[in-house]
Amino acid sequence: MARKSIEERLAQLDAQRKTLQARLTKDERARDTRRKVLLGALVLHRIEDGNAASADYLRDFIKRELPGFLTRETDKALFDDLIGSDKAAK
């Protein structure tokens, strides 16, 4: 059996590195998404079931900050119950 040349071995290692990097990137994205979902779930839980003071604080914060954070109308529509629609504000 012939030995692989150095160039072939480097190409194989480079392909393995790219595969591992892609897997790492995918895992990082999944972790980031899970963190966002859980944080959002906590905020919504506190708004719905929390004590009045923390629920009011969170509602006010979201109403003040979220419209400037969201850029797409479809995203804003998802939070219409928390921030109100542009049509209602006009």
Automatic annotation (TrEMBL):
Top-rank taxon, per record: Bacteria
Keyword tags: Coiled coil
Ranges in a coiled coil: 3-30
Protein name: Mobilization protein
Organism of provenance: Asticcacaulis benevestitus DSM 16100 = ATCC BAA-896
